[in-house]
Amino acid sequence: MLRADAGALAIAAEVNAGRASALEVTEAALARICRVDGDFNSFTDLTRERALAEAAAIDALVRKGTPAGPLAGVPYAVKNLFDVKGLTTRAGSKINRSLPPAAADATVIRRLAAAGAILVGTLNMDEYAYGFTTENTHDGATRNPHDTSRVAGGSSGGSGAALAAGLVPLTLGTDTNGSIRVPASLCGVFGLKPTYGRLSRHGSASFAASLDHIGPLARSVADLAAAYDAMQGPDTHDPACAGRPVERATPGLNSTIDDLRIGILDDYFEQNAEPEAIDAVATVAQSLSTRLRVRISEAARARAAAFVITASEGGNLHLSDLRTRAADFDPMTRDRFLAGALIPAAWYIQAQRFRSWYRSQVLRIFDNIDILLAPATPCSATAIGQETMVIAGKTVPTRPSMGMLTQPISFIGLPVVVVPFHRPGRMPIGIQLIAAPWREAQALSVAAMLERGGVVSAPVAK
Amino acid sequence: MPSNSLSRKEVETLVDANAAALALPLTEALRPGVVENMSRICTLAQSVMEFPLPAETEPAPVFIHAPG
Question: What is the pLDDT of residues B16-63, one digit of tens each?
């Protein structure tokens, strides 16, 4: 008998063995969402008919003795900027609601379907992904299941909250400057932002194409790795998709990490973090037996450059709508997109040139290091509507500052696993495990080791 | 703050000029929020602009033809 908070691989094992019905698992997930998501506002659409049809098809395969896939019967949901056939891709906006329904599923949704997973719905986000808190004026704020007066993070807030609330065991998000890692941190779940170009973005609404990534969130490392593996592979429809062959991370999850060289990022990554974030990193570092401190030069400038590139590309992408219907944008994003559209070319080009320089500097660090540790967010979840916060003694605007520690890393597309650190009676907070390009498997194996040791975990919020 | 940040007036001039160049209408209601956001972007951009880069440093994105 499967528990309501059963993980993805546990569900798949039971379904594939014929001990659980994909249809029953799906119906239970849909019922749970309908019963409790009103408290969290993580879902924006349910794909009930599709989900029931997919689940029935999985059960039919199992009855025939045909392999139904490594994620057979696993209910999952996706940020509402992914194309789902027959559904309008809202991307957190009001403007997109008038678009025709998507003609086809996004590539990664097709691949998860091929693995047997069951799409149950789409999830709330900041409008057009321009935010770190999922306080969406059109669809409402997503509330953190650990404390519903607090934000779930963003822009993939629904993706984090749906997991923390125990509604589904697997979700998909996107990350341009931190939008998988921030919700993973604030909601206390695992998240993976792979190397830029690893997973196909085809069929997902763009924000800043230079920086956009897609990735999974889950409540265990094994589930995270299984989803990541199922989605890998070349896709010529995404110009940035590197065409690398599938490099499965699941087989190596329990391999030894004794030979990995691990360091703690200091300087910028400590100066812009509260004690709770620094202490979480210290606890993880201690369990990994490392005290090595590593400095990334010019991290603040990297964050600035990422900001300029994001604003410029985002503003350009929406220029037509900004000209004709600016009032239909979310007030939380509108002025930011407008300003971004007006950025002088010299600023944008210089930011992209600085990116080349910064990448070469950081990659040199990985000559001597395998994994870098840093907080995923400067602090744990803030209150919904909170305009400012104090970080290391400085008052900063809450929303843009929540991604300060993620931006300098995604700026050069390094793969990152966020592991969630829970403390009794306190809000969770995440730690970034940052690897060299294409070394997702190493970061995942470190995450798995921390999880086995009980240092990190993703329990459903009580 | 970077020494060559723009003044408020200069940011307003930049916003108005670029909005006109892009045929992007800015109502009086929208303008203050856009100017405020551009001020923020300007401060960040100046920190990037003032960093000396070797002349041979190319922009990170590289144009590659699809396989034939």
Answer: 999 999 999 999 999 999 999 999 999 999 999 999 999 999 999 999
Does residue A2 fall inside a structural domain?
A: no
Residue of B nearest to A311 (CA): B41
Supply the pLDDT for residue A245: 95
For residue B14, being part of any structural domain is answered with yes
Give A387's contacts in chain B (Cβ within 8 Å): none
**A345: contact with B, CB 8 A cutoff:** no
Domain that holds residue A112: 8-452
Tell whether B6 is within 8 A of chain A (Cβ): no
Q: CA A164 to CA A430: how far, in whole Å? A: 13
The answer to whether position B33 is within a domain reads yes
In a domain, B60, yes or no: no
Q: Is A352 within 8 Å of chain B by CB?
A: yes
**Complex ipTM over 0.90:** yes
Report yes or no on A170 lying in a domain: yes
Tell me the angle at which helices A8-16 and A48-64 cross, rounded to the nearest 10 degrees. 50
Residue B43 falls inside a structural domain: yes
For position A302, which CATH number holds? 3.90.1300.10
Model pLDDT for residues A243-263, shown as the tens digit of each residue = 899 999 999 999 999 999 999
Residue A155: active-site member: yes
pLDDT range class, residue B66, cuts 50, 70, 90? confident
Domain count, chain A: 1
Count of alpha carbons within 13 Å of A314, Cβ hemisphere only? 25
Residues of chain A with C-beta less than 8 angstroms from the C-beta of B15: 339, 342
> Structural domain of residue B37, as residue ranges?
8-48
When scoring B15, B48, B50, B53 by the number of chain A Cβ atoms within 10 A, the one with the most, hence best to mutate, is B48
Query: Domain for residue A312, yes or no?
Result: yes
Q: Is A458 a domain residue?
A: no
Its pTM stands at 0.98
Residue in A403, A395, A346, A10 with CA at minimum distance from that of residue A180:
A403
What is the total count of domains within chain B? 1
pLDDT in tens, A421-457: 999 999 999 999 999 999 999 999 999 999 999 999 9
